[in-house]
Amino acid sequence: MTKRDGLRARDLGIPFDGVPGPFNAITDVAGVEVGHRTLISGEGELKAGEGPVRTGLTAILPLGKAAGEGVTAACFALNGVGEMTGTTLIEEFGTLFGPVMLTNTLSVGTVRDAVIRWSVRTVTDRLTLFTRSIPVVAETWDGELNDIYGFHVKQEHVFEALDGARSGPVEEGSVGGGTGMSAYEFKAGIGSSSRVVETAAGTFTVGVLAQANHGSRYQLLVAGVPVGREIREWMPSGPETGAIRSSIIIVVGTDAPLLPTQLKRLAKRASLGLARTGSIAANSSGDIFLAFSTGNRVRVGQTDLGTYRFVRNPMISPLFEATIQAVEESIINALVAAETMTGINGRTVYAIPHDRLRGVLREYNRLQV
Questions:
Q1: DSSP string spanning 328-357?
Q2: pLDDT of residue 2
Q3: Domain positions in the chain
Q4: Is 247 one of the catalytic residues?
Q5: Does the annotation count 287 as an active-site position?
Q6: Which of 155, 298, 303, 345 has the smallest set of CB atoms within 10 Å of its CB?
Q7: Backbone φ and ψ of 215, nearest 5°
Q8: Residue 334 near residue 250 (C-beta atoms within 8 A)
């Protein structure tokens, strides 16, 4: 793998609209923690169960590890060829308890079971534990680079990602659930971004984390520039598996107090940020989005009348705009941060070349520095 020195899209002079938070990540939403567990081992010929291994998982905890409360939430599938467990419960109650986990397609069951076991270990209140019984686990396919049928993600890796979750800067690119992922036929993976929004109702933060594994090269847009049509080199090399790679998971968090119906609207706007990078949400794609609000807490076991605060709908458009902006930047951050990776049977997916990318943007007068 080629190291990228922690560079992000803005470091290359790529222009984006909106004002990011201090970390320009989903963790700018107070209380949100993110943890990764990256699994990389072996090289050469695929031997099922032995490798090469290029996979992992990512944990997003809306209220941190110790929280006994839930948050309001909603989900939206732009195209449903994928999986996010726990969405039926979210649709029914408009609430989310516990973490959101991202991994590869065939590790969803392992991660789901491990999250429950982690909750048994960390949650003492039985009623609170009950709310963690249907975890949210989402996936994209990493079988182009990873021995996906080897089931290399184990319970201990889930525990490590959850126990290691922190606030602050979020590691991006070929890490965690994004380890073996690619987008627009460049290496990609995890990306994050945030926006600080001034509204008549107050100042709020919208944060996004994406696991990007979608799109064809010709579709890629960066800051409105047809980069994918300009950069035709560095196409993936080596034998293909024949599997269709075309999915993205997007998680949107905000501290703006929103109702579940409003969060559904926010989740839908992730589609527009995705489209800004060129995606068409292809027939085989699993484009599944989740939005949550830490501005409304949900306590279990209470029987009195509850109260939700909410931003009134006439003032919600700035939050829509912030979501679109942060989704777009998160996907480009995933591409910029990712490293060239060689996986099973010598299959290589190349990182987007920074100098070439800057050159194309300069030709279109879209480079800031």
A1: HHHHHHHHHH---EE-BTT-EEPPPPHHHH
A2: 45
A3: 9-358
A4: yes
A5: yes
A6: 303
A7: 85, 155
A8: no
